[in-house]
Write a structure and sequence with these properties.
By secondary structure, the chain is an alpha/beta fold. It has two domains: 63 residues, no CATH class; 188 residues, 3-Layer(aba) Sandwich (Rossmann fold), CATH 3.40.50. The chain is 43% helix and 20% strand. It is built from ten helices and ten strands. α1 packs parallel to α3. The mean pLDDT is 92.
Length: 263
């Protein structure tokens, strides 16, 4: 086993991150960013440092799993969810279940919660819940805290910010309880092959599969198929794509926005 694969074996053992589920180039780039930060040039030396340094273990975990995002990233996607997808779901029932898979620090699921809150103002009988999951325990904690820097809110109007956030003395913005209560955060490994719940109406997994190999992408697509109701929606990142083998499972709804419907 060469030094790189010895290091990835260490990562899998102590951080419980399965490196084989990601493209090797991605893993190498993230590891190199940490090695450069502490001026270590060889995988063998970094492996030794990692084993003896719990603080570095957390920094590497963050480097491997972090997903930089904002509220309402790709606004047209959320506008389509609000204008078309949720109203279509509500034609059939008042219960709406969404899964934000790979939710990172919470901007995406809270964005969906704001959409549902705004729809609920004219549809008070709607019963809505969002499952928000990630593989990183630390980032889940941050998401639950719901505290953000001002740039994360750049895609929101001042009216939305005042309505849904509290400006704290330290200049950060904290999500208000009426939005927080719509989201249920928990740990989940997407590579387990088991969806967080069944009979979901919408699964949003955006800018996550770009780090996966083709087999992992297909396995994840099957997992989402199993979790969705017939006619449920699968929302991908704008730079992602559905593999040809998965086309029998999903049909296009808004191709440019990467929104698909379960067959």
């Amino acid at each position: 086993m060469d030094d790189f694969h010895t290091l990835t074996a260490t990562i899998e053992r102590i951080l419980h991150i399965q490196c084989g589920n990601y493209k090797e180039d991605y893993i190498k780039r993230r590891i190199s960013s940490r090695m450069n930060a502490i001026s270590i040039k060889e995988y063998r030396a970094y492996n030794k440092y990692l084993l003896s340094n719990p603080e570095e273990q957390e920094k590497l975990r963050n480097a491997l799993t972090i997903n930089v995002t904002k509220f309402f990233r790709d606004k047209e996607v959320f506008e389509t969810v609000k204008r078309e997808l949720i109203p279509e779901i509500l034609k059939k029932k008042q219960r709406v279940r969404i899964w934000s898979a790979g939710c990172s620090s919470g901007e995406e699921p809270y964005s969906y919660a704001i959409v549902l809150y705004e729809i609920g103002l004219t549809n008070p009988s709607m019963d809505a819940l969002i499952y928000a999951t990630d593989i990183d325990y630390e980032i889940i904690k941050r998401a639950k805290d719901g505290v953000y820097e001002r740039p994360a809110l750049d895609n929101m109007s001042e009216m939305q910010i005042k309505k849904h956030f509290t400006l704290r003395p330290d200049g950060k913005y904290e999500i208000k309880p009426h939005i927080r209560e719509k989201v249920r955060f928990q740990y989940h490994d997407l590579m387990r092959g088991v969806p967080i719940a069944k009979y979901l109406d919408l699964i949003s997994c955006r800018n996550v599969t770009i780090y996966f190999n083709e087999q992992q992408k297909n396995d994840l697509c099957k997992e989402f198929y199993d979790g969705l109701v017939a006619g449920g929606y699968y929302v991908m990142g704008l730079s992602e794509y559905l593999g040809k083998e998965m086309e029998p499972l999903f049909k296009q709804y808004r191709p440019l926005l990467k929104i698909f419907v379960r067959q």
